[in-house]
Amino acid sequence: MTFGISSQGRLLRLSHTDRGNAIRIISARPATNVERQIYEDV
User: Fold this and answer.
1) What is the spatial distance between Cα 22 and Cα 30, in angstroms, rounded to a whole number?
2) Whole-number percent of the chain with pLDDT over 70
3) How many structural domains are present in the chain?
4) Is this prediction's pTM over 0.70?
5) Could you give the residue ranges of the DSSP H alpha helices within 1-42?
6) How many helices (H) and strands (E) does the chain have?
7) Residue 14 is part of which domain span?
8) Do the beta carbons of residue 15 and residue 29 sit within 8 Å?
9) Quick one: pLDDT band at residue 1, thresholds 50, 70, 90?
């Protein structure tokens, strides 16, 4: 699980896997309020 900021400035939660030399995104969705708080506290 990774958090990141989209090009539109939204905080997203990403699920991904490493495949050789590539990182493949499995899913991406907006972060919940709880996830946003955790992200901001780090």
Assistant:
1) 23
2) 100
3) 1
4) yes
5) 33-41
6) 1, 3
7) 2-41
8) no
9) confident
